[in-house]
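ok new one. same drill as before - structure tokens go in, u give me an amino acid for every spot. 151 of them this time. try not to just spam alanines like last time pls lmao
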């Protein structure tokens, strides 16, 4: 699993979200691998700190302090997409508009949203510009390792 969180990315890390103080960066390259790993084995990731960027996405039954930090995942050659992401919680969540791009840092907790769900308890959030490149993510690749471990 260390490879999923630390070795699946080939591009330079952003200074604004670089791994320090035990916080791991999620990039476009490893986003869906990490998303899948955390959802499949929540308990192994509780307490891990992560930093990543996406857009604010809401569905009707979320609470005022919740949103999904989302990315659009391309699912076929016709560029059809589906929304994927982590459920996030923050006291000021309602202050961030739908479809606005944000960078969050937070800790993975185990919560309940129609069953057990990893939730990112946000400790830092800021508005960022929509990426001009690498806006989309892709399905998990063969670097995905379906076991738990260190981020």
């Amino acid at each position: 699993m260390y490879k999923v969180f630390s070795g699946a990315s080939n591009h330079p890390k952003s200074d604004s979200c670089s791994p320090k103080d035990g916080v791991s960066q999620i990039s476009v390259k490893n986003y869906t691998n990490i998303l899948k790993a955390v959802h499949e084995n929540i308990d192994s990731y509780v307490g891990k700190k992560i930093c990543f960027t996406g857009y604010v996405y809401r569905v009707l039954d979320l609470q005022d302090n919740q949103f999904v930090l989302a990315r659009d995942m391309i699912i076929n050659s016709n560029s059809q997409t589906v929304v994927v992401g982590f459920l996030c919680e923050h006291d000021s969540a309602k202050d961030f508009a739908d479809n606005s791009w944000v960078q969050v840092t937070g800790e993975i907790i185990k919560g309940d949203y129609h069953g057990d769900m990893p939730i990112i308890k946000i400790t830092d959030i800021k508005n960022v510009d929509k990426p001009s490149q690498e806006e989309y993510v892709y399905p998990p690749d063969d670097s995905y390792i379906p076991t738990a471990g260190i981020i």
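Residues 2-7+19-137 form a domain with the OB fold (Dihydrolipoamide Acetyltransferase, E2P) fold (CATH 2.40.50.140). and btw The first helix runs from residue 2 to 7.
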